[in-house]
Amino acid sequence: MIEPATSFAAIDQSFFTDRSGGGCIQENKLFCPGWVVDNYDRYVDPTLQHLVLVGSAVVGGFLIAFALAILAHRHRFLQTPFLAGTGILYTIPSISFFFLLLPITGRGPLTAIIALTAFNLQIIFRNITNGLRNVPPNVTEAATGIGMTRSQVLWRVEIPLSMPEIIAGLRIATVSTVALATLAVFANGGGLGTEIVSGSNITFKTGIIVAGSIAVIMAIVFDGVLLLTGKLLAPWQRKRVIT
Amino acid sequence: MIAPGVAGLPIGAFGLFGDAFNFVFSGREAETGGVTVGGTGQVIDLATTQLEVTVFALAVAIVLAMPVGLWLGHRQKGEFLAVSAGNAGRAIPELALIALMAAAIGVGMVNLVVALAILGIPPILTNTFVGISQVDRASVEAARGMGMTEFAIVRKVELPLAVPTIMGGVRTAGINIIATATIAPLAGILTLGDFIIARNVYGDAGVLAGAVLVALMALALEGTLAAIQWAMTSRGLKLERS
Amino acid sequence: MAEESVSASPVRFESVTKRYPDADSVAVEDLTFEVPAGEICVLVGPSGCGKTTALRMVNRTVEMTSGDILIGERSVKEGDAARLRREIGYVIQQIGLFPHRTIAQNIGTVPALLGWDKERIRARSAELLDLIGLDPEYGDRYPSQLSGGQQQRVGVARALAVDPPVMLMDEPFGAIDPINRGRLQNEFLRLQSELRKTILFVTHDVDEAIKMGDRVAVLKKGGQLAQFATPTELLMEPADDFVEDFVGADRALKRLALMRVRDVDLWTAPLAQAGDPCEPVRTAVSAAEVPYALLVDGEQRPIGWLSERDLAGEKVPSTPDSAADPLIDSDSVLRDGLATLLQSGALYAPVIDARGRLTGVLSVEIVSDFLSSGKAAESELAATERPHD
What we know:
The structure holds 3 protein chains of 3 kinds. By secondary structure, chain A is mostly helical. In chain A, 67% of the residues lie in helices and 0% in strands. Chain B has a single domain, classed as MetI-like (MetI-like fold). By secondary structure, chain B is mostly helical. In chain C, strands 6-7-8-3-9-10 form a 6-stranded mixed β-sheet, sandwiched between helices. Chain C has helices at 51-58, 81-86, 103-107, 109-113, 118-131, 148-160, 178-195, 206-212, 231-236, 241-247, 251-255, 278-287, 334-344, 364-372, 374-382, and strands at 11-19, 26-35, 40-44, 66-71, 74-75, 88-92, 166-170, 198-203, 215-220, 224-229, 271-272, 293-296, 302-306, 322-323, 328-329, 348-352, 358-363. In chain C, α5 crosses α6 (148-160). The relative contact order of chain C is 0.11. Chains in contact: A-B, A-C. The A-C interface holds A 136, 138-149, 152, 157, 160-161, 163, 234, 236, 239-241 and C 59, 61, 82-90, 92-101, 109-110, 113, 141-146, 155, 158-159, 168.
């Protein structure tokens, strides 16, 4: 075993002395509200960066997964290889993925976005595929029988009917990505992780709590927005006969 | 610390993989100078720790979450609790959890295992609940009608039928735990992630080697859990699916 | 009306064959028959006889291997399949309404595909909702808010949206419970008597085939046409053992559903009005087909049966011992007439026309004679109008 001193345990004292906040900060208490009030502005940039990371990864992941799912819907034999391929990308831990990309994209937000996108693919792909598969066969049969072309059946019937499952996939992907994007700091990708790991310091509790809380709130807000979007996109699900 | 030299990396791509290969099998001098780092000895050492931490945490998560999921699922109660747990679990930022745990409670093996187990509980709880509660009620009623005790119903009917869903949760938990175990060095336990995080010691060769090793380990764990699931799934269910 | 002229086209099957590459037997073999414009042709047969396959080759949801199907003078093979399907109404057993679209949107699907403007689609949806007897407010509901029978009606309305000359119906009432099925069948026949579409209708239920079909095509395993005939011909002269077996041992009884009471030769009973002398009535009774006299009013409406005691006096009384129950409507189906007679326990029942006037007397014997006589077959074959309810 390697000596801990040579690894990641050294504490950067400048982290505390640079800031106001008085005794609470000096003692590194669990939570120092005064410090947060004085320093809230330092979270603006990381939060915006975090939003960019998550937004790019989810939108990118959705576009790619959607294309893959449509392709696999047309050509069923592609389903298994796509599922296996996206499964591998999902399984590789993001932190490891960042640095597998090191020789190709180096360090930076792009690397983080690529890795987070790769993580998302399977969640979204699986949900779109399930959604399309769960469309009742009699509905597509009727759609074809009354004269819809293949792409009309897809865009007017199958995809709208899959919307609840597609949105469910996006919710899982988005919430997971918000949490995972804190790791982007290790790839110099910015985001809220920069306020958790600052320099080599990970012991500033108030900072960790604030950054972590912002991430959790961001996840909840995204989840709520998507939930609402889902309800708007699937109005038929709200009206059911009560029998 | 050396300059990252980002611009030159794409050209030196193969070279860096070569360095990483050497790092794993021969080791190299630390960036900080003096000692030799890397090499099979340290790789095996760190990999063993990462696997131990993962297996312990996964076992703790299973022991804590599965009985609750089984009980709630069998009683068809607490759906909101079980499903919300899964949703909430996903929202926990792994980095913040590990960092806060280390800073507030202290570094160490036990604390780390507890933190990782916390990440593993939600998917196992949710999937166990969903798996059990989705078992065809007709099968359960038939079992009850034949005079099985409630315990026997869970063990002989519900559990076997729910294996694929439950194992899905265990696999999600496993992937999440082994991924997060990579940042365990932040909590004072040195796993393969140390190669990645402590670049100032191991250099880019070490970082890339760590990334490859962690990826392989995660894939191996996922493969093993998938194999366990396959072995535990009854033949009747497999036939139904194909 | 401009649309009237194209409201129906004949459909002709010419040596239509379907062979699936992975199966060693033929699904449909050398099928040839013609459905005249405006008629319902029912394809019936046991499962696996290729009836649905035959139907689906019309709108090319299944492509035929050889042969041709003509709608009017045009081969279905010409042009684009999706375009063809928009001109053919299609109703399937599972209905296949789009759960994510309102009822009005469902009905307006094909008009929208054909690029109708919104106002015209809306008006057409409302018109069709009215036609199928649903309140206009149903237009804004979703399929899951409707009962099975209502959904099936909407399925029919959707198929009718662009007034197609031909409709295909694949076991449309198969998933409906027996009581509602009968109602939907009658409703549909009433609709068809106005619309006069050419309809191909698939069922495995021979009773439904006889009830719904102007013509019935009986298919046997391997997709061969066993018989193509009117329901009457089918019941009277099954082409072979298979058809006879398929139609069932009770085919004689089934024929009663094809005839109305007024189509058979009814018996006559001696008639008397209140106040007539009894003597000539007594004489008439002893010589008549019906051994009882009927008391009628001035309009020939039956009042009751006169018993021997009623006729024992000088004059025919105004209130006889037994009422004229049961009375049978001459427009009712012979099967229902017989059922009424048997249920009441009476030997004879007066038959009346729409204005209540006596047209004759029905007896069990008439029905059995009718079924066994060759004359019956002729009169059935000659019958142009089919009882629909």
